[in-house]
Amino acid sequence: MRVTAKVDYAVRAMVELAATDQGQPRKAESISRAQDIPVRFLLNILGELKLAKLVESRRGADGGYWLARPPSEISVADVIRAVEGPLADVHGVPPELLVLRPPVQPLRDVWLAARGALRRILEQVSLADIADGTLPPQVDNELDQPGAWERR
């Protein structure tokens, strides 16, 4: 899985908001400085997150951005889908809709299994988990697997 800068920045910004008191607006500039995210890029990302109803905003001196739901109810997968779309498409097509010719037909099942593996982690980790530093056991289980810390 390749994590784009957009996804990385979106998740980091959302965790930054999760660490803020609920309902207390944060200025984009403040989030930008705290996470070293280019402010113009962040504003575009926050716009997409607002369209996905993951953040709300208010203009003005007392304005800013805040989470639209409690951080425990927003998963990393929710954030990724808001800014990049589905977790695992193949050339823009959901894996279950792929029509492949022999001998590569079983490849569809590989893509489906890979999507399932991504979901098992990304749908189970909430913004609150990250902000609190209390990741679910399945993350630790994956980190304990042989080769988990090796780049290949």
Topology (SSEs and partners):
Layout: H1 5-18, H2 28-35, H3 39-51, E1 55-58, E2 64-67, H4 76-84, H5 107-122, H6 127-132, H7 137-143
Antiparallel strand pairs: 1-2
Tell me what the structure shows.
The chain is mostly helical and about 150 residues long. The chain has a single domain, classed as Arc Repressor Mutant, subunit A, CATH 1.10.10. Helices cover about 50% and strands about 5% of the residues. The protein has a two-stranded antiparallel sheet. Strand 1 and strand 2 form a beta hairpin. Helix 1 packs across helix 2, helix 1 crosses helix 4 and helix 2 crosses helix 3. The termini are close together.
CATH topology assignment:
Arc Repressor Mutant, subunit A
Q: What does the overall shape look like?
A: globular
CATH H-level superfamily title? Winged helix-like DNA-binding domain superfamily/Winged helix DNA-binding domain
User: What distance lies between the first and last C-alpha atoms, to the nearest angstrom?
Assistant: 12 Å
Strands, total number: 2
CATH class: Mainly Alpha
Runs in which pLDDT lies below 50 for 5 or more consecutive residues are: none
Major sheet: size, sense and barrel closure?
A: 2 strands, antiparallel
User: How many whole angstroms does the radius of gyration measure?
Assistant: 18 Å
- What oligomeric arrangement do these chains adopt? single chain
Approximately what portion of the residues adopt beta-strand conformation? 5-15%
CATH architecture level-2 label: Orthogonal Bundle
Number of helical regions: 7
Q: How many domains make up the coordinates?
A: 1
The arrangement of helices and strands along the chain is: HHHEEHHHH
**Overall pLDDT level:** 95
Strand order of the largest sheet: 1-2
Q: Name the structural class.
A: mainly alpha
Question: Helical amount among residues, as a percent range?
Answer: 40-55%
